Amino acid sequence: MAGLVKLACLVLACMIVAGPIATNAALSCGTVSGNLAACIGYLTQNGPLPRGCCTGVTNLNNMARTTPDRQQACRCLVGAANSFPTLNAARAAGLPKACRVNIPYKISKSTNCNRYVVISL
Q: What does UniProt give as the signal peptide span (predicted)?
C-alpha cells in the first residue's frame, strides 16, 4: 500500500511539473510530422518538391504563432532531421525558402531551438 501511495505522489508531481510545459506548446511532433510527410522524398531522395510539401510547410508556419509553439516545432524538426541518415542537409536548410515561407532559423540536425526561435514583441 505504501508503494502505491509513493507511485501516486510521483505521478502527481510529474503532472504538476509537466503541466505548464505541455500547455505552453500546442503543437505536437505528430502534427509537425503530418504536415511535412510529403517532403520526405524531396529531403532524403533528391526527388522533386511536391506541392503538398509546401502546403504543409505553410500550414505549419501558420499554426506556430507563439514562441513556445515555434520552439516545439523546431525541436520536432531537429528530431526528425536526426532520424533520417540520408537527409540532404542543404535541401532541409533551404526548404522554407523553396516554399516561400520565412522562418528565423535553418532546419538542421543541430539547430538550437531555444536560442534562435524567439518571437520579438
A: 1-18
Long-range interactions of 34-40: CB distance < 8 A, separation 24+: 35/59, 35/60, 35/63, 36/60, 36/77, 36/80, 39/95, 40/84
- pLDDT tens readout for residues 65-120: 888 999 999 999 999 999 999 999 999 999 999 999 998 888 889 999 988 665 54
